[in-house]
């Protein structure tokens, strides 16, 4: 910490963090409330967590959400990576501007419009709405995020690595899997996780594209909240927050450790 | 690179190098042949209707400034670019259309292009694995390569755990491991510091002799090309300007471009007075009262405007006029002195305002040199020191 942090800095940081985290902290605290009334504190209890695990509807919704998120993240990562490669590698092909514009459009498109247009499409081609339509819709809007993440890595990728592999007798397809992919893998994984979390907490698009029998967790929570906030919902949200926090911390520790190892290795190389 | 190699090649290198001149042998069949090769990138002509033969066991250098087409020429041999027109053959086989992974050439990249996620060992074994060589043979070859570049102890390291010089050696070992017909070196020593670069140049020559392979090097460093190569091709704007042995390139440049690009040179404009077999008399523009005699057969006619190329080390600067009246002499004034330790470079202003550089070896330990600023001096050179350039 640098010396001379003025009271102004301290206050602004404190206010900023308060603004961001007080609602979440309140939610977590009240999930351990013994009272049925959300706003009245009546002692510590894990009662609502037990209750939560008996709520079949919520558990079903969570399961649907996880399956959708996993499938979405995987397909979006494959497609997004391919799009990123095309956009960075094949400099100027006819329709490049159109293609890149179309890949990025969902990034800035209001979710309501994406959701509505997908709904219209599904109705027009007469697909039964449900699990698969949600997944398709999620793939559509997360693909561009994956593409952006992977593309930023590919821009700094040294093409001569691939040329070296070709030069040493490795055919192009194999080169992608033994040289390119392992090197860009961290970006691909980040893309996957980004797509996963985006799909996990999407409410708007899922609401538009869902059908009977496929209710995601955010939709379930939202519909229950309309009937009144129960501490059970607080508990469900706390678990979600815990999962996300753990993932974020694990990823950042991994990155940090890699960085430290790399620096250590470089010092070693410089010394010997 | 091992001392054994160095000793062995030291004894034989001179004998082989001196006799080695397949380009003068009309019977010799070139290993690599560029025939009327043109490469265009849109409007830009990178290589312009170029023909070139390179022979087996030759260490050939492509020399030129950036953008002269030398890298494109090499990349066409590796298969990363296809010529727009023309033909490239390797050992008699037409290469055009053959993808890089099916060519018997290997390249050492300027950035080294070591696979960061693989160990030194796996990097070197990569090409061998692609050939589905059996495990034992791969192990033996990798060991041999590690020994050749003196990196046995580093086999398990990743590239980022190595110094720049070590990475360069891994890149070399990897490109040599498959025993390619031709090794392509793209500015291989550019990233090394001067001392390491000079050492590595000699190691490269030793390795090339030891393995009896054909090396094609691309460089913009004329000293590097002169040191390592049997022949140098000087390139400019997609064309070959001169292709010859280093000494010929340096002593008999065929144009102002080559004289200026390779080494340090004074270029004096002059008018031809008389042309005899083996001797040209010229009137320098900078000192019209003087006549310079250059011992050379020359195609120019009396009255033509030409240039005289004079290397600084072939010119003498003295306070007294030369005793020998055969030498070319001109008077001037010391404009500036550069003391380099081994040499001093004197910048002499001639009467016409033209400045020439002359190098003088510092043969004694004197701190105060006898020639100093503003001295009136004589600059002279023998008739076989200069070259008349008509283009």
What keywords describe this structure?
heterodimer, A: 272 residues, mainly alpha, MetI-like fold, 11 helices, B: 391 residues, alpha+beta, Rossmann fold, OB fold (Dihydrolipoamide Acetyltransferase, E2P), 6-stranded mixed sheet, 5-stranded antiparallel sheet, disordered N terminus, transport (chain A), cell membrane (chain A)
Question: What's this, in brief?
Answer:
The complex is a heterodimer of chains A (272) and B (391). Chain A has 272 residues and is an all-alpha fold.
- C-alpha Rg of chain B (nearest Å): 25 Å
Strand content of chain A: under 5%
Treating each run of at least 4 consecutive H or I residues as one helix, how many helices of chain A?
11
Helices and strands of chain A, in order, run as HHHHHHHHHHH
Helix/strand structural class of chain B: alpha+beta
Figure out the total of helices of chain B: 9
Describe, in plain words, how this protein is organized in 3D.
The complex is a heterodimer of chains A (272) and B (391). Chain A has 272 residues and is an all-alpha fold. Chain A is built from 11 helices and no strands. Chain A has a single domain (27-34, 43-237), classed as MetI-like (MetI-like fold, Orthogonal Bundle), CATH 1.10.3720. Chain B has 2 domains: 3-104 and 180-256, P-loop containing nucleotide triphosphate hydrolases (Rossmann fold); 264-389, Beta Barrel (OB fold (Dihydrolipoamide Acetyltransferase, E2P)). Chain B contains 9 helices and 20 strands. The radius of gyration of chain B is 25 Å and the shape is globular. In chain B, 39% of the residues are buried. Chains A and B meet through α7, α8 and α11 of A and β6, α3 and α5 of B.
């Amino acid at each position: 910490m640098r010396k001379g942090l003025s009271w102004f800095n301290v206050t602004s940081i404190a206010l900023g963090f308060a603004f961001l985290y007080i609602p979440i902290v309140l939610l977590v605290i009240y999930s351990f409330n013994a009272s049925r009334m959300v706003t009245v504190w009546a002692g510590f209890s894990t009662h609502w967590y037990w209750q939560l695990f008996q709520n079949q509807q919520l558990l079903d919704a969570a399961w649907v959400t996880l399956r959708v998120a996993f499938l979405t993240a995987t397909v979006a990562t494959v497609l997004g990576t391919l799009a990123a490669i095309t956009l960075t590698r094949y400099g100027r092909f006819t329709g490049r501007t159109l293609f890149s514009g179309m890949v990025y459009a969902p990034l800035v498109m209001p979710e309501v419009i994406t959701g509505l247009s997908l709904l219209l499409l599904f109705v027009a081609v007469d697909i039964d709405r449900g699990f698969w339509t949600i997944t398709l819709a999620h793939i559509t809007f997360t693909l561009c995020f994956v593409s952006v993440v992977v593309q930023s890595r590919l821009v700094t990728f040294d093409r001569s690595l691939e040329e070296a592999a070709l030069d040493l007798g490795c055919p192009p397809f194999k080169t992608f899997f033994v040289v390119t992919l392992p090197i860009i893998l961290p970006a691909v994984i980040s893309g996957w996780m980004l797509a996963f979390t985006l799909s996990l907490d999407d409410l708007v698009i899922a609401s538009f594209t869902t059908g009977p029998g496929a209710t995601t967790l955010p939709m379930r929570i939202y519909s229950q909240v309309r009937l009144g906030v129960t501490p059970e919902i607080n508990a469900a949200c706390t678990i979600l927050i815990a999962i996300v926090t753990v993932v974020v911390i694990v990823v950042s520790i991994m990155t940090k450790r890699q960085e430290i190892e790399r620096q250590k290795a470089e010092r070693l190389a410089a010394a010997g | 690179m091992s001392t054994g190699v160095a000793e062995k090649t030291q004894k034989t290198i001179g004998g082989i190098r001196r006799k080695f001149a397949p380009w003068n042998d009309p019977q010799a069949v070139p290993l690599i042949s560029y025939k009327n090769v043109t490469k265009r990138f849109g409007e830009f002509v990178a290589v312009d209707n170029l023909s070139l033969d390179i022979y087996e066991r030759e260490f050939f250098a492509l020399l030129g400034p950036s953008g002269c087409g030398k890298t494109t020429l090499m990349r066409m041999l590796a298969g990363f670019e296809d010529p727009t027109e023309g033909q490239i053959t390797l050992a008699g086989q037409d290469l055009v259309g053959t993808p890089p992974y099916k060519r018997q050439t290997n390249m050492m990249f300027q950035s080294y292009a070591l696979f960061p996620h693989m160990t030194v060992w796996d990097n070197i074994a990569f090409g061998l694995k692609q050939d589905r060589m059996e495990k034992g043979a791969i192990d033996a070859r990798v060991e041999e390569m590690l020994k050749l570049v003196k990196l046995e102890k580093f086999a398990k390291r990743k590239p980022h755990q190595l110094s720049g010089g070590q990475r360069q050696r891994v890149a070399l070992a990897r490109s040599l491991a498959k025993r390619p017909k031709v090794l392509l070196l793209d500015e291989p020593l550019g990233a090394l510091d001067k001392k390491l670069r000079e050492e590595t140049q000699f190691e490269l020559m030793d390795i090339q002799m030891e393995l009896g392979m054909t090396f094609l090097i691309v460089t913009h460093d004329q000293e590097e090309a002169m040191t390592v190569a049997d022949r140098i091709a000087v390139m400019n704007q997609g064309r070959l300007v001169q292709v010859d042995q280093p000494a010929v390139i340096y002593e008999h440049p065929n144009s102002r471009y080559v004289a200026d690009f390779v080494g340090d040179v004074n270029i004096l404009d002059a008018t031809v007075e008389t042309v005899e077999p083996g001797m040209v008399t010229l009137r320098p523009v900078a000192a019209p009262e003087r006549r310079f005699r250059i011992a050379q057969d020359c195609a120019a006619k009396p009255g033509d405007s030409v240039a005289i190329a004079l290397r600084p080390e072939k010119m003498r600067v003295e306070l007294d006029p030369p005793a020998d009246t055969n030498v070319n002499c001109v008077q001037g004034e010391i404009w500036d002195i550069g003391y380099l330790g081994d040499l001093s470079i004197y910048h002499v202003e001639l009467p016409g305002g033209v400045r020439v550089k002359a190098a003088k070896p510092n043969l004694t330990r004197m701190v105060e040199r006898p020639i100093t600023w503003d001295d009136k001096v004589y600059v002279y050179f023998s008739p076989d020191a200069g070259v008349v350039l008509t283009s």
